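Researcher: Please generate the 3D structure of the following complex. Treat every line as part of one assembly.
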Amino acid sequence: MDNTSQPTTSGMNGLIEDWVSDKDAFKNVSWGKTMMWIFLLSDTFIFSCFLVGYMSVRMTTDVPWPNTSEVFALTIAGEHIPLILIAIMTFVLITSSGTMAMAVNCGYRRQRKQAAILMLVTAVFGVCFVGMQAFEWTKLIEEGVRPWGNPMGAPQFGAAFFMITGFHGFHVSIGVIYLTVVALKVLRGDYEERGYEIVEITGLYWHFVDLVWVFIFAFFYLW
Amino acid sequence: MAYADDVENEELHEPTSFISKYVWSQDHKVIAIQYSTTAILVGLVALVLSGMMRMQIGFPGSIDMDATAYYQAMTMHGMIMVIYLLTAIFLGGFGNYLIPLMVGARDMVFPYVNMLSYWFYLVSVLVLLASFFVPGGPTGAGWTLYPPQAITAGTPGSEWGIILMLVSLIIFIIAATMGGLNYVTTVLQARTHGMTMFRMPLTVWGIFVATILALLAFPALFVSGLMMLLDKTIGTSFFMPDMMQFGSQLDYSGGSPILFQHLFWFFGHPEVYIVALPAFGLVSDLISVHARRSIFGYRMMVWAIVSIGVLSFVVWAHHMYVSGMNPYFGFFFATTTLVIAVPTALKVYNWLLTLWRGNIHLTVPMLFSLAFIVTFLVGGLTGLFLGNVVVDIPLSDTYFVVAHFHMVMGVAPILVVFGSIYHWYPKITGRMLHDGIGKLHFWITFLGTYLIYFPMHYLGFLGMPRRYYAYEDYPFIPDSAQSLNAFITVVAIVVGISQLLFLFNLAYSYFKGAPSGGNPWRATSLEWLTPETPPKHGNWGPSLPVVHRWAYDYGVPGAVLDYVPQTTSAEEVPVHENDHDE
Ligand code: HEM
Ligand SMILES: [Cu+2]
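Model: Done. Output below.
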């Protein structure tokens, strides 16, 4: 009767036994972390739908798609460099994932000052990213790109661009706010008793947002 | 480190003011009542709309309804019934009430988020209802909202109605997500001692899997809703092809209407199971309790729920046979559709085998459960017909389809909602619902819905198209169809009005019903074992229950009572080793 004993079955059945076992399916995972993982799974479906939608309108539209490496090129010091801004943005975001991971680590070592500072640094990277995105939007708008049309080709280009990067930028902005709030609470010592798992949960969200960007980068900018 | 143990030791903060207790409440039970009440009220709107439509069809011109109003009524009726009534009441209502009680938790894991979920739901309902009052009225695009017609001039409500509809859906999705994350996490991580997942009542399994479906299917509706909103408001062309209207070229070009259909049905088919799986779960428990028999093939039932859930994501295009597709795709989707019938049929057999030689008490919940089985069976069988491309194409867009989906996802789940309310009302209020009124309500509703929908299959074979406002002067529809339509309308009105019996019963029994005690049905699952009825804030008094067995120990041979509650350990029962544990 006592189900707290270790399951003895192995293989597929053992796996299932573990999952359905007493009290919690994921041992040593807090409620907050479980919930964040499930949320991210759901959010993955949202971004997948966006990307699938973008790809299919790209196939149905009867006007040629603009050449992205031309559209997203900058002329810096007389030099015409394709995709340079996006490269920098991607770099910034990936770096921020690094600082985030360090923050999580510091959190678990209970170095709360370092953890908070690293989180704030991550947030600053996030702000830089959103800033560059705003710059990119401005540049494209000045060049006449609108959600309903653009001089370079298919109208769906602008539509998908603004919608997808906008939705992602929204995620980054939320992430910046979330990071800042949690960082300040960490700094204040609010989590001394409960431990610093919250840093990791925040990190999960942040890494996810970065990962999504990699896909947007690959499918929208490089293709 | 799960917090479950901490929660147990934590001081329970009990809200004291009226507002924090009943309005801005974070208690899952109060939120459940709020959800259910709102859902039932908005469901009444949908019911009235269906009555108006039936009047127009059965007795053309008898009420002041033109074609525009008909389409608007039809669209709002369908959308409200599917989303704002059934989805909300199964997940937000029953899910909220039963999950924590059945798994032995004090509340949902994040009560505050849970509370927000309800308020977002309420806002979405208000936005939806607001569309009745905007210029042009609510959208009349059909509940499927297919573009391009949904947002082009000429479709009723293409001015504002469609915008409000899409905004309302987006808010609803946010609400469902906030609630859903809570339900899933609670089931996974907040069960009490001894409550393994294979000891959970099937109700919890059904709602759990349905919630996962919701979390994975609603994103597609969210994205398609957002894209259509952009098409409508700022003129993007996601779903809008090059189009001429009234002799002039519209400002759209190159979008894909079929893309919308894929996204919509990627949501829409799982949606059917978001409604059906909780119904499956609830009805399993009702049958087991009221037939005093342990559920037949518990594990099989669980696996059937899970596999239906998985399969429901790969059948969506069976709604799009008439949109045209590569024949291999049609073949694929027809096959998966038929495959999904296997676990479904298995469930029906298991219900029947549970009843077999059971000690069937024809209580109101049992009556509704039996009615569910036969109704679902009919709807499921016609579904097998429609799943095949060659049969579907001639029947598509006829009343055969209307009959099919009303049987399978309209009436059947509603019957479970009724049965479950009769079953759990005593726990919620401490009083029984009136039995006589309940039986009258049951017979009118059950026989009535059969009289309404059975003839519709035949009308479908005659070729009577669905979504038509009037059926005069179509040479291919025989005159006799009209008398059948009039008959259906009369029954529909009777059934509609008879729901007042139910509402009256709810109100009357709240004050005058016979006191029920804590466990009137002699059931085993945890929600019947709370120290107080109705359960107080925190549900379990000072310490959480400890579970020793599955939820279906009925008719235990040798036991003094014919049931053994989940909290009774083996030593406490005078039975030989008869342990249905695994
Ligand atoms: C007594 C109860 C009901 C009656 C009399 C009724 C009647 C109707 C009528 C007359 C139509 C329009 C058919 C047409 O013109 O094509 C309709 C459509 C529909 N109903 Fe019901 N209905 C009832 C309950 C329900 C329930 C419980 C559901 C929940 C799923 C539901 C879901 C729908 C849907 C999804 C549509 C399709 C709307 C569309 O074509 O866009 N109905 N119903
Ligand atoms: Cu389907």
